[in-house]
């Protein structure tokens, strides 16, 4: 298999982004094609089916299930209020009647004479989807959602926690090798997205939460500390739905890892600009990476790509090592020997010879390299 | 119809990342694997057609074998002579686990009875069981409904009640399903397939409740009486529906289905079928394990009963941090033979989770991965043991003599002393740089007792052989099965050797075992093994005559202190004498002592490069 390397994360100065904003169920699109939207504009909405309550009327009235239909005060399809009478037993000579009241507002959906159960569906739950980024509605997918198009700088992280958020970028370190310390985080940064360097501690993250910081971008974070934030040990990298006040995007990996130069420089050049941030990550088939999107004026020229990613790794490709012992190092491919080579671990693999930025030349398994997509 | 002798067979396995093709040919030595090829699976965008990957993998087979198999996008069949060279193949079969495999939800009235039977049927058919709903699972109806909605399974198996028993519980489950309005995972253009395999008296009520909103199929009860499970009808129906509904929705499968000479089987279903067949043929107890990136499958046959479990989040890449979480860092670090800080270890493992396709370059990284693999295997096997049990809920007649033995319903069927063959597969075992590493990982994780043969699947071709062994066409059935079993023995299994491990409490300083061996080359060896040792005697996979004498407190399978005379088979590793202890097995608690022992055992097994010549 020729393409045994990871495509890599995007770090793009100016690109055209097409963001699908799709409803979980069919519903209504509230904007038209061609209109301009802001991140907070509602673009589509729907109603999720309400929760279901099952009431075992036969048990509650102490009657046979087959008798339930005749004791019902409501029929299937009727609406009912909480506390309103749902069913009543015949009693003895009209006396000693028992009754069952509805536990909730809703609609009677089903009455079973086999089990004596009555199903009540509660009111639908409204859901609204916003635009997330500024841009133009490029496409309307009827009843499903829209696609927003925008010129933007795009940075993908390797891992994140927390969902969509937005705010002004605030660079808090002077170097990509510097840690974002708790003391650097101040109350006036409320609602902003803070940019750090190689590491953020749990203490610093907690301070950010307490001060209402919208998000943090960092090179590294300790895996062990995630549990303290999430409340559980993260076993599989599927995130984004957790309810966190501060979203975090990790650009490099776990531990103390210097933020990639290009990532840091791009974030630095947008210090003070407005950005949309999403920590949602899914590392499975159909990979989702966390991202930072900084929208640019529509007339911005798209910068040319230096490397054609679709052609795969070639000599002189810019790559980053993504596993120990050279984890995080950036270099250029010098050679791609076709034959398998034996590593220190004795694993036989396809390799690439890499010249690192400091001039060192090392052999690395191709699987441990990722292409760095830049423009 | 007369039986045809197959001359050539092409088989593919469409995995979630790689599609693997193998070519089996009739040679002078019988059926042999002659070529294999692989290519990335093409189920997802931008290709969205599984057959592209199949064709690419087959093209690699063509190049390597020099045999013309394809004519454009057609697999040429049957084999024909073309200018003195064979062209095409006689049969083409395939398995698939692409697109996340088959994901099911099962339901039963009592969780430990019909719920468990339904789970066994679904797992046996090769599916991933996302959840088991039961009347007594402690969840309120609305919680169950919420769960069904969230999961969006490919298929639901509903069971409950013995034939003629009460119907209200199982109908109640059907009503919950109805209220949830379940939607299938792939596409919303078809109704969700539901199989009903419960109380036959409730069939009409179930049809009335679910007939309109689901694609309902009714089969024989999975548990017609308490004392007996009847899993085959449900298992077969799951396979049919997998083909008709689930696979037919996945990109390109409709086309692939028209190419194959037998129905496409879910990958783990095919592996299970093969293991079951081997156990039956050789009348042995077998444990097979396949450790993947996201999940670990364990298969076993004990007392002629087949069981399969899937540990959904115990794998070596996507779910590697879950192994760490479930095993605890202490249990992982105990297998690491060098000093490492806990935080550093956790970060390194988590970095593998977010970059799952990377390979250990340094020896330290390899050792860490193999430590993790031991724990993933150990935990998966614990789950398997607790699931592979005799039927629960049965009253067993007991005599006075039984009263002292705690056997009864719900006991695990897994008996390590009875185990004859342990087969490992999956990247970390099949592709370990040294075979001794695979053997040691399996021994450490499974702790085989008495005498147990070890093997690994060389290139993970058990799926293809499994589907081949189950071809149900009368004219080729026999020949296909013969080919599958011959290739399994000759090319698929790599015999590592035999592990000899006495069971019981050992006394320090006193030999735990004395072995008198006559090796295949006629050489004789007599050795004493002290407690706490692990040693290897090189011997090929041929008969070594052995007399094994355990200490009077220790058991090798025939009772405490009872010597055994038998034929042992070595392999690429050899005969492995493990007197580190079983029941209990423990590692030294002292840190330095533990590292010293780990390195000593490692050297004895020639496990890692640094142990060479020490």
Characterize the structure shown.
The complex is a heterodimer of chains A (375) and B (614). Chain A is mainly beta and 375 residues long. Chain A is 9% helix and 39% strand. In chain A, strands 1, 3, 12, 13, 14, 15, 17, 19, 21, 22 and 24 form an 11-stranded mixed beta sheet that branches. A 5-stranded antiparallel beta sheet of chain A has the order 30-29-26-25-31, with no helix packed on it. Chain B has 3 domains: 8-98, 2-Layer Sandwich (Nucleotidyltransferase, domain 5); 101-259, Response regulator (Rossmann fold, 3-Layer(aba) Sandwich), CATH 3.40.50.2300; 286-391 and 408-611, no CATH class. By secondary structure, chain B is of the alpha/beta class. Mean pLDDT of chain B is 90; it is low at 401-408. Chain B is globular, with a radius of gyration of 25 Å. Helices cover 34% and strands 24% of the residues of chain B. In chain B, the strands form 6 sheets. Chain B has an 8-stranded mixed beta sheet with strand order 17-16-15-18-19-20-26-23, with helices on both faces. Chain B has a 5-stranded mixed beta sheet with strand order 3-2-1-8-14, with helices on both faces. A 5-stranded parallel beta sheet of chain B has the order 10-9-11-12-13, with helices on both faces.
**Structure summary, number of beta strands of chain B:** 26
- DSSP strand count of chain A: 31
Tally the structural domains of chain A.
3
Alpha-carbon distance between the two ends of chain A = 28 Å
Kindly report the greatest chain-chain contact and the residue count on each side. Answer: A-B, 54 and 62 residues
CATH architecture designation of the largest domain in chain A: 3-Layer(bba) Sandwich
């Amino acid at each position: 298999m020729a393409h045994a390397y990871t495509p890599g994360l995007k770090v793009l100065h100016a690109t055209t982004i097409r963001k699908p904003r799709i409803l979980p169920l069919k519903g209504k699109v509230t904007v038209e094609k061609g209109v301009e939207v802001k991140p907070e504009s509602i673009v589509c909405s729907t109603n999720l089916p309400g929760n279901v309550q099952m009431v075992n009327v036969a048990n509650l009235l102490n009657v046979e299930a087959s008798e339930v239909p005749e004791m019902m005060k409501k029929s299937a399809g009727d609406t009912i209020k909480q506390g309103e009478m749902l069913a009543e037993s015949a009693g003895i000579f009209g006396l000693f009647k028992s009754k069952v009241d509805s536990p909730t507002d809703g609609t009677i959906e089903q009455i079973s004479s086999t089990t004596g159960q009555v199903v009540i569906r509660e009111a639908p739950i409204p859901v609204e989807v916003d635009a997330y980024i500024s841009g133009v509605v490029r496409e309307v997918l009827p009843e499903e959602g829209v696609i927003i198009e925008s010129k933007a700088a795009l940075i993908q992280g390797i891992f994140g926690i927390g969902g969509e958020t937005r705010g002004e970028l605030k660079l808090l370190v002077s170097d990509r090798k510097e840690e974002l310390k708790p003391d650097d985080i101040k109350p006036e940064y409320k609602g902003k997205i803070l940019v750090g360097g190689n590491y953020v501690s749990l203490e610093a993250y907690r301070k950010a939460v307490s001060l209402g910081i919208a998000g943090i971008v960092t090179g590294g974070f300790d895996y062990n500390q995630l549990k303290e934030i999430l409340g559980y040990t993260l076993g599989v990298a599927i995130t984004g739905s957790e309810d966190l006040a501060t979203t975090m995007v990790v650009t490099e990996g776990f531990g103390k890892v210097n933020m990639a130069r290009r990532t840091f420089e791009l974030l630095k050049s947008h210090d003070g600009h407005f950005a949309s941030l999403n920590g949602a990550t899914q590392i499975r088939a159909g990979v989702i990476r966390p991202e930072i999107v900084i929208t640019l004026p529509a007339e911005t020229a798209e910068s040319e790509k230096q490397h054609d990613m679709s052609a795969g790794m070639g000599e002189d490709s810019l790559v980053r090592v993504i596993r120990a012992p050279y984890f995080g190092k950036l270099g250029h491919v010098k050679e791609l020997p076709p034959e398998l080579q034996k590593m220190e671990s004795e694993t036989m693999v396809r390799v690439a010879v890499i010249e690192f930025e400091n001039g060192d030349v090392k052999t690395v398994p191709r699987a441990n390299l990722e292409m760095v997509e830049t423009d | 119809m007369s039986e045809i002798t197959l001359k050539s067979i092409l088989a593919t396995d469409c995995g979630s990342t790689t599609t693997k093709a193998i070519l089996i040919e009739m040679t002078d030595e019988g059926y042999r694997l002659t070529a294999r090829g692989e290519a990335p699976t093409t189920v997802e965008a931008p290709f969205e057609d599984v057959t592209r990957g199949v064709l690419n993998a087959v093209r690699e087979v063509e190049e390597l074998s020099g045999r013309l198999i394809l004519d454009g996008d057609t697999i040429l069949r049957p084999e024909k002579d073309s200018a003195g060279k064979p062209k095409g193949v006689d049969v083409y079969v395939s398995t698939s686990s692409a697109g996340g495999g088959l994901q099911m939800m099962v339901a039963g009235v009592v969780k430990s009875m019909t719920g468990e039977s339904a789970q066994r049927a679904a797992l046996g058919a090769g599916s991933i069981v996302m959840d088991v709903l039961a009347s007594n699972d402690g969840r309120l109806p609305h919680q169950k409904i919420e769960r069904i909605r969230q999961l969006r399974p490919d298929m639901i198996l509903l069971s409950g009640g013995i034939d003629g028993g009460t119907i209200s519980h199982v109908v109640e489950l059907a009503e919950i399903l109805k209220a949830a309005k379940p939607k299938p995972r792939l596409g919303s253009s078809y109704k969700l397939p539901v199989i009903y395999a419960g109380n036959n008296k409730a069939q009409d009520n179930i049809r009335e409740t679910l007939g309109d909103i689901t694609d309902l199929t009714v089969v024989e009860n999975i548990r017609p009486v308490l004392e007996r499970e009847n899993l085959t009808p449900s298992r077969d129906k799951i396979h049919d529906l997998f083909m008709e509904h689930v696979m037919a929705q996945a990109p390109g499968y409709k086309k692939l289905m028209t190419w194959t000479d037998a129905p496409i089987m879910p990958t783990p279903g095919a592996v299970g079928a093969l293991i079951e067949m081997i156990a039956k043929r050789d009348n042995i107890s077998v444990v097979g394990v396949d450790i993947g990136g996201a999940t670990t499958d364990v298969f076993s046959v004990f007392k002629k009963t087949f069981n399969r479990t899937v540990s959904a989040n115990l794998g070596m890449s996507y779910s590697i941090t879950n192994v760490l979480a479930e095993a605890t860092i202490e249990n992982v670090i105990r297998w690491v033979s060098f000093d490492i800080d806990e935080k550093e270890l956790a970060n390194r493992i988590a970095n593998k989770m977010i970059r799952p396709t990377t390979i250990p370059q340094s020896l330290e990284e390899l050792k860490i991965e193999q430590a993790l693999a031991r724990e993933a295997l150990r935990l998966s096997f614990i789950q398997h043991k607790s699931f592979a049990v005799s039927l629960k809920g049965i009253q067993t007649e007991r005599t006075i003599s039984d009263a002292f033995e705690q056997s009864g319903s719900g006991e695990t069927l897994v008996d390590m002393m009875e185990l004859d063959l342990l087969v490992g597969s999956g990247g970390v075992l099949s592709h370990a740089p040294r075979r001794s590493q695979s053997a040691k990982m399996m021994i450490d994780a499974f702790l085989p007792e008495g005498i147990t043969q070890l093997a690994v699947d060389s290139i993970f071709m058990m799926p293809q052989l499994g589907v081949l062994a189950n071809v149900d066409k009368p004219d080729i059935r026999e020949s296909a099965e013969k080919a599958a079993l011959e290739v399994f023995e000759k090319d698929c299994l790599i015999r590592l050797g035999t592990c000899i491990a006495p069971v019981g409490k050992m006394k320090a300083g006193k030999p735990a075992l004395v072995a008198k061996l006559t090796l295949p080359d006629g050489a004789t060896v007599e050795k004493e093994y002290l407690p706490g040792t692990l040693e290897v005697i090189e011997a090929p996979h041929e008969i070594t005559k052995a007399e094994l004498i355990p200490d009077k407190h220790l058991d090798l399978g025939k009772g405490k202190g009872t010597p055994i005379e038998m034929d042992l088979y070595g392999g690429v590793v050899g005969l492995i004498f493990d007197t580190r202890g079983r029941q209990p097995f423990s590692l030294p608690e002292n840190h330095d002592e533990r590292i010293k022992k780990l390195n000593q055992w490692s050297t004895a097994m020639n496990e890692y490069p640094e142990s060479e010549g020490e």
